[in-house]
Request: fold
Amino acid sequence: MGSIDTSDFAAGSHTGKILFVDAFDSFTNNIVGLLEQCLQAEVTLVHINDDKVSENLEETVSHFDAVVVGPGPGHPGIPSDVGFINKLWALDDENILPILGICLGFQSLCLAHGAEVERLPCARHGIVSKLLHNNVDIFAGIGDGFEATQYHSLRVDLLGNKSRDALSHSVFWEPSEACPSLYPLAWDTTDEANGPILMAVRHTTKPFSGVQFHPESICTSEESKQLISNWWTNAQTWLTKRGRARTVHKKQIWEPADILRTGLASSSPDVTPSGSLASSPPTSHLAGLLRSVVEEDDVFLRWEKKPAAKITPTSLIEVLGQKQNEVVLLDSQGHASGNFSIIGLMVPGKTMKVTYKVADKILRYGIDQGQTCTMQLNSIEEVWPMLQEALDLHDPRNQGGSSRASSTSSDMAPAGLDQYVAGHLPVGSPFWGGFMGYISYEAGLETIDVEPHASYIPDINFAFCHRTIVIDHKTSQVYIQSLLPNDLAWILDVGRTVDGLTSRAELTADTADSQKSITDARECATLDRFLSSAQVARPQETSYRDKVLRCQELLASGDSYELCLTDETKISVPAAVNGRMEMDAWALYKRLRSKNAAPFGAFMRLSGVSVVGTSPERFLSWSREGKCQFRPIKGTVKKSKEMTRERAHAILESSKERAENLMIVDLIRHDLSGVIGADKTWVSKLMAVEEYETVYQLVSVIEGQLPVNGVEDGGPRGIDVLKASLPPGSMTGAPKKRSCEILSDIEQRPRGIYSGVLGYMDVGGSGDFSVVIRTAVKTDDQGVNNTNAGINGDPEVWRIGAGGAVTIQSTDESEFQEMETKCSSVLGAIFS
Ligand SMILES: C=C(O[C@@H]1C=C(C(=O)O)C=C[C@H]1O)C(=O)O
Ligand SMILES: NC(=O)CC[C@H](N)C(=O)O
Reply:
């Protein structure tokens, strides 16, 4: 048995230990952060289905001072939705301890003490309202203006009379006959349709309290910190009075299934921190093979910076003769808010391509045309450390081997141009080389343990690009960069090409330009010939609207707070027109970017997949200094003559649109703070209206700071944030896991690259990924009925996913229109 912890609360020397019971919610880490910040408590997280904890509940809680039972999807009366929570309310006198229930936890507390839990006439998801409270207990000292965010479909009825009309519920402050042990502490009386809704209770004799609202939400008043402190003070008073102290075991007999901060826990990969990599052998074959391409002890970045007014990344790819090759282009498409465009080029015999498929868990990698290595993995979790290690091994700042001068001797710069030599790195360039490509939606599903629909595409598809070109549109500079030895000739060559393009852009009546427009016109005509006989299969209105209603039924039952429903449009293009075997993906891309410019445009042709995209949405970026940024978009209004900017603002500032956005902001705060901690996570922009080519959108910005010495300390890195945040919250809804399960059931198809993320991970430690939306995708292997498209006379198929967040306030008609608007932003541009 354990010994007794003799530390004294009153003396203030005690670090409280709190057990957090998570019902698979997507706001959990925000609550944990709030507890840690307000109480300086140590919080341990367990899931509701943890058998070990459930079977040893008394023993488990004896190690803690208090328990917090969190929110979650479902109904407190359904055993699988609450797991062992019910057992907590039944703890006997000897084992009882203070417990705070939040939302589902609150409902469960009330249900266990005689209340009814029923559906609200109108569910409240992401709704912020002023509460009525009588200033006592956990509300002591809290002002009248206290506002709280609600995410619930169900409500507690303390009168216990199901036949009572919802509108006749009344506000009262004494226990009811049906629930004599529950004191009501707060109500929401702002909603006419629902009538008064109970918002908080305290048990009359046991140390149990609960709140229906979410104290941790970004839109709940700051005073919720006071509420948490009040609860803790009450808990401490109770513990002291009882003389209860937690048991201290040398070794606990149970292990929590999931330690808090999964990112931190799992970010101790087998990878040596980059600081010492230069001298230690690679741990993965992938990283070792890739590193062997650079036949030097140290990796150097050779680079040149040139003025490059007016050149576009597409014209650069064309003059470099790369438009029909495998290539990755991250293109800010001249959009006002796009700063950089990045080109990643393939080098025969040097470029490594890496793919992973969720269906078979096989990792494939190889150097260009060379032999492909295959590796059977147990899970996608094994991929990330290999990628990170490969990046670290190419960090040009890690100089552990021979001296710089000797290793560059074969590649010395012309006199006066010392930027070719490694010592000076181009800090203004966000990408020095590394992995470029995408991670599919299904890959994201694997990370959260949701069964995906079988898909035929590579779910991870990256190339390690040694040769890269970065255009800084704000300063009109271009960086030409290579991580390969002896590559100066290539840099100089591209430099001359850039000079040529720049001067050509300045001479309007240049013959080469008119030659170019003739080529463009020809390309366009061929594209139109393909497209004129293409067949477009769009989602059927009745079936889509029916799916919206199915989503809303699950929102009303409490299984989700928001569901991002999507569907797919297929364009089947006949094989072979005028002797051409395939529609020209490059020409298609150029048309799309010119008609629907967006800051996260992308063209990618890699490992049998073609992507042409105009995404407006950043998923996640992280800088070399460790600053992370998410930019979720939620809330969309179509532009039209009638839709003035003022009207669009008014719509986007409505409670429906704000609720949609708020849920995703809270969800992303949870994703990010789960890795780096809530104290390092903040919201820098909350619901701003941004204007795009065909739509207005509501955008928020969530930021955070990775530990500065993360690499040395084995702390979390950008890739840890990335993998912990998949699939993107703006494409799932909340809570993420249950919502993805529901969507998979309703959508009945893999989403593929759509709803995934696309971008780069840099050898210097930065990264930037967009959400793959407003994008058309084609794969060479299109599934059983569609292999070798375009070759055996089968049509080639381009897919465009589109959808939108369904909330309880949505209408099926307007959701269908929203999906159509988004799809048309791509389709309309292609067929223009
Ligand atoms: C689902 C799509 O977009 C997502 C949904 C949005 C919304 O519901 O308003 C906005 C941007 C994206 O996060 C899409 O473009 O297909
Ligand atoms: N946020 C929550 O915990 C929600 C609880 C419950 N599923 C409801 O919808 O009412």
